[in-house]
Amino acid sequence: MLLFKEVKSIKRYLKSEQAKGLKVGYVPTMGALHEGHASLIKRAKAENDICVCSIFVNPTQFNDPKDLEKYPRTEGQDIEILVGLDNDVLFYPTVSAVYPKGLHIPMFDFGQVDKVMEGHFRPGHFDGVVEVVYRLLDIVEPDNLYMGQKDFQQFTLIQHMLNQLASKTQLVVCPIIREEDGLALSSRNVRLTEENRKNAPIISKILHQLNDWLEEGMTIKQVEQKAIDQLSKIPDFKPEYLEIVDGYSLQAIEKMSDSDYVVVCAAVWTGDIRLIDNVILKKS
Ligand code: AMP
After folding, report:
1. Range of the structural domain that residue 208 is part of
2. Active site annotation includes 160
3. Ligand 1, pocket-test mutation among 51, 52, 67, 151, most atoms within 8 A of CB
4. In this model, does residue 155 exceed pLDDT 90?
5. 156 to 10, 55, 80, 141, 233: CA distances (angstroms)
6. What is the CATH number for 268?
7. Is residue 262 part of a domain?
8. If you average pLDDT over residues 95-119, what whole number do you get?
């Protein structure tokens, strides 16, 4: 595996490989790698000639400085995992390499897509995400970009950004990898207390039950409320939002027949760890 820390050197390398007609797949991460990240890398390797993974804990997307400080950093282990996956290129830049002085990032218009759910509860978060993904794409210029369905609103915004840039990069969204008990893998899971880790799979269990409740005749509002009530009963759990939305616009819908693509997204505080998850309820 090749390791690059400098923008100039990775750009030069990838340009020369792409000039030979080789296809580049790119997996941006914040490290603390797990099987979710691994699934993206395996897919990128299978569909491209070169797989580039980046590890960059992006300070501009943390709306809570304590979360940034406590974000797990496992450099040695991450490199071992990447070597084990036969990843081709690791980009491991410093903050000043990604954000040189005087850098100009274009403004994008996301309408209401970045105002709801994560956008509402984590002010400034998506500004940071869009800023860093724009910058990283400008460096790597991949043919294909691999992101997880786990961060539903994130990949939706990035798709909007790519559309507005008329970018050549194709976004490939990969399914959520879960623990056997259903908990969506996340770098933050290692910070859960034993008790909260035991209860955490209830989140995905509830999200997967919503279609049954809808089929029993409950309305969307009733289903959302029932799910929130059940999550609120778990000791130390505090649901922040749970919303059934249109999968493209991410806006609330009243009836399942309002959209052919419906997803439920949720964020739940488990002690001082915030977990997000989602389940696609309908896609035709
Ligand atoms: P992160 O390191 O958390 O920024 O995540 C890097 C990429 O991995 C993002 O595109 C995430 O959506 C994706 N990812 C994170 N967790 C999972 C998971 N459990 N399954 C699939 N992809 C994931």
Report:
1. 187-283
2. no
3. 151
4. yes
5. 27, 21, 31, 19, 31
6. 3.30.1300.10
7. yes
8. 95
